[in-house]
Amino acid sequence: MDDTLMTVPIVKTAMESDEAIVIDALKLAFAADPAVRWVWPDPQKYLSHFSSFARAFGGKAFSNKSAHYVGNYSGAALWLPPDVHPDVDQLITLLQSTGSDEAKKDGPEIFEKMSGYHPDEPHWYLPLLGVDPLHHGKGLGSALLQHALVMCDQDNKYAYLESSNPRNIPLYERHGFELLGTIQVNTSPSIFPMLRKPRKL
Fold first, then answer.
1. Greatest CA separation for the chain
2. Burial classification of residue 188, based on how many CB atoms lie within 10 Å of its CB (0-12 exposed, 13-18 middle, 19 or more buried)
3. First to last CA, the chain
4. Cα separation of 183 and 117, whole Å?
5. Nearest-CA neighbor of 115 among 40, 180, 165, 67?
């Protein structure tokens, strides 16, 4: 095979000046996500509120230099270092003021269940990882994961995430994540907490 065809995606660290573009990339990636669209089934509301959601959920990654993107912002990941947490109060406020009736009712319980699965040990948390659907199947999600997991292994730290789309579980399992259970409340889609133990280098 021609080696020039086997280009490895280059992962870059997003600066705070990249924040809006990175969040737009995630907005494209999550447009058909079961959990996010359960919160905002109306397309206009989804487009209006996703950016605020992403900033509250994973926006601290930008100031911690742990937001990454690939290509021409074709995919992105927001990682939170140990002891850095999403702004849950802001998330619940956003949910209650803009979300669907079901999300308003059941969202707080879902967040509570999510927090119950977080490991007690210091860990890296992945609130959001997504690839523009136009670029699916090109290894961009794997590149984004691998880039951060090298750091987890170097620091001997756990990595934790919740997959909001069952289709992504095999990707995470290939990178060493193990399924911990299922989070589901009333009409909500299932969310899948997953944990990866550090690997010895």
1. 55
2. buried
3. 30
4. 9
5. 180
CA dist list (Å): 83 to 48, 60, 93? 30, 11, 22
Using the predicted structure, report yes or no on whether residue 151 has a pLDDT greater than 60: yes
**What is the pLDDT, as a whole number, of residue 86?**
95
For 95, half-sphere exposure in the C-beta direction (CA atoms, 13 angstrom radius) is 23
Q: Please check whether residue 162 is in contact with residue 86, taking contact to mean a CB–CB distance below 8 angstroms.
A: no
CA 25 to chain centre: 12
- Give the tokens for residue 188: 């909500």
The per-residue pLDDT for range 95-124, each reduced to its tens digit, is: 999 999 999 999 999 999 999 999 999 999
Helix pair 19-29, 43-58: axis angle to 10 deg: 130
Question: pTM of the entire structure?
Answer: 0.94
Query: How is the chain split among helix, strand and coil, in percent rounded to 5?
Result: 50, 20, 35
Dihedral sign, Cα of residue 141, residue 142, residue 145, residue 147: negative
Which DSSP category does 198 fall into?
P
Q: Which residue has the tokens 């995470």?
A: 172
Quick one: pLDDT at residue 3? 45
